[in-house]
Task: inverse folding
């Protein structure tokens, strides 16, 4: 996973990745500080075919009492897509034990993660 740009180190995240299911496919957008789309909209992450049984105490589900059958977040693919578009999930969010490597489920098939621009290579 790439590092965040040093100018953003220790600062709150200004960008938010949103991943959700639309018409049977996972899509992602990155929303900027002005509420405009910084990446996307609707970057395709593939079909939502895999499902799991959710429990409220699962990582990432601390904001909602989610139970039942839910689609599995394609986290690795989302992280790769973020990097391809110049973003990385914020380090503080990845270290937060209540999240799923920085991702938080906010609805049955929607996840969000704070993100930052990546450092120049």
Result:
């Amino acid at each position: 996973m790439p590092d965040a740009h040093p100018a953003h180190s220790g600062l709150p995240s200004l960008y938010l990745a949103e991943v959700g299911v639309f018409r049977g496919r996972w899509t992602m957008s990155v929303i900027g500080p002005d509420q405009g789309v910084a990446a996307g909209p609707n970057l395709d992450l593939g079909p939502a075919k895999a499902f799991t049984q959710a429990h409220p105490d699962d990582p990432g589900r601390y904001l909602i009492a989610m139970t039942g059958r839910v689609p599995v977040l394609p986290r690795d693919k989302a992280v790769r897509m973020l990097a391809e578009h110049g973003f990385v999930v914020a380090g503080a969010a990845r270290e937060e034990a209540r999240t799923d490597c920085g991702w938080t489920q906010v609805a049955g098939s929607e996840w969000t993660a704070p993100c930052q621009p990546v450092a120049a290579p």
The chain is about 10% helix and 40% strand.
